[in-house]
Amino acid sequence: MEAALRRFLDDSSFACTGGIVTDLDGTAVHELEGRIVIPQPVEFGLKRLWDLGRPIVLNSLRFPLSVIRTFGQEWYNITNAPIPTISLNGSLIGFVTQSSQGELEYDEIEAFPLTPTEIDEIMDGIHGLIDGGVRDLVFFYYPRNWRAGEIIWTPVAEKIPHLMEKYSSAASVISIDPAALRARLLAEDICMIFLLIEVEEDKLMAYQHSKRSNFLTHKGGDKLHRTARIAAALDFDPAHSVGAGDTQMDTFLQGMGLALHVGPMELEFKGRLQTLKIRDSLELGALLFRLAQLLDGTLP
User: What is the pTM of this model?
Assistant: First the structure.
């Protein structure tokens, strides 16, 4: 690992044009006693790199309000500056900022909402599932208006109390007619829809070819494409940067100079210069700290 870090620094211009792009859950943060936290090694490593002038970008499935409410203040304390954030699988780009009153807010740079045609296609699929007898659906949607948070729809009104308890991050859980849901979705910008189908595979496939869970965003963009957009805005080069992720949704890793695969999953994305597999967020923090030491010459 040490040799790979040194080669990356030798072969890249990370010191002057590189940045750090990281996924959150399973990568840079973890759950401890029911609370999502930033491990101290990650905090220390990122702080050292930030102090050396390297920009830090969060690239996550989470919606902005979730980032703010769970660990936003801890993250903000690392840099005491607006946090560049790619959220909802690349469909929303902006900054987590702090108001003069000390409250964290979200400042949008660019959004890529679903088109009316895309929403109609999704709702046609929902109608097909319901008409086929599949009612074990949990339908999450995320408006462009970040203050609206996460909204859940279920076709079974009796499940509302259960879903409210299970998904405490949701702003509301509703059960309205599918036609009314379609109208509501078409009336505002929706950045992402997450469809969870809680049925057996054979029953599902009898009605419609669909995955048990789908993250649905505007076609033509993902974490990789949006990383290029925010890198241009912040003036750093992904090909000379460090990226960390833990799932197949972290497509941005293939555009990074050094790709860090965190956790047990085998990922196909290779870095342009180096690729390393590391155990967990604690090891990620140690690696980032060592990278900072090599960068500023603290240790030989």
Answer: 0.91
